[in-house]
Design goal:
six-stranded parallel beta sheet; alpha/beta; TIM Barrel
Length: 241
């Protein structure tokens, strides 16, 4: 998958490869492969299921850093990995030269502020939660790694651009437009809803691998309705006899 992404991107944009695993050695193997394949950086999730301590988290990321050459973005997502990297641990890791930022999916809007104060402005703070992405920017964040942008990239980019140019009210307006879509894409476990949305745009099939499964008909309706609300699809008017 990484090789294919690098080939298709053809150096037009950077490729950040997901190399994380709950095995440190496997993560290192993935990291080395991503580097060999030509990726520009790597996104490394906190090890899931194992539930390491803060020291375990530090040693895991340090080992990946020391045994691979790509810049590392930490992916902190407690809701899916059952472990939360503390700001203090992130401060320690940020001292390593190739650990350059975090994708923060905690939903805690105090995190970007406290992390920025503790680590400094050069550590890249990226939101991993679409619904709080704008608020994350207001708290000192630099950007976001988005689910919604897979199907509405222009709208998401417009919100980011408006914020960066100081057009706060315009950014808020776009954020309000995106809100129903952001909600719909997380009615069931991601990426099932966004895969369905992408299938409506002809970008992919809606297929997901077990233990994930196809979303319900009610969720499909709500996803389609939210997509129509931002002009991505059209829904024919239906009348009841």
């Amino acid at each position: 998958m990484t090789e294919l992404c690098v080939e298709v991107a053809a150096r037009r944009v950077p490729v950040i490869a997901g190399t994380g695993s709950n095995s440190t050695q496997e993560t290192i193997d993935f990291a080395r492969h991503a580097e060999k394949a030509g990726a520009d950086a790597q996104l490394v999730v906190t090890p899931y299921y194992n539930k390491p301590t803060q020291e375990g988290l530090y040693q895991h990321f340090k080992a990946v850093h020391d045994q691979s050459g790509l810049p590392i973005i930490i992916y902190n997502i407690p809701g899916r990995s059952v472990v939360d990297m503390s700001v203090e641990t992130m401060v320690r890791l940020a001292k390593l030269p190739r650990i350059v930022g975090v994708k923060d999916a905690t939903g805690d809007l105090s995190r970007p502020l406290y992390t920025r104060l503790a680590v400094g402005p050069d550590f890249s703070l990226l939101s991993g939660e679409d619904v709080t992405a704008l608020a994350f920017l207001a708290q000192g964040g630099h950007g976001f790694i988005s689910v919604t942008s897979n199907i509405a990239p222009k709208i998401c980019a417009a919100m980011e651009a408006a914020w960066r140019s100081g057009e706060v009210r315009e950014a808020q307006r776009i954020n309000e437009i995106l809100a129903p879509l952001n909600r719909a894409l997380f009615l069931e476990t991601s990426p099932s809803p966004v895969k369905y949305a992408a299938s409506l745009l002809g970008l992919s099939t809606a297929e997901v691998r077990l233990p994930l499964c196809e979303i319900t008909d009610n969720t499909k309706f709500r996803v389609r309705d939210a997509m129509a609300g931002v002009g991505l699809v059209q829904i024919e008017n239906q009348t009841n006899d």
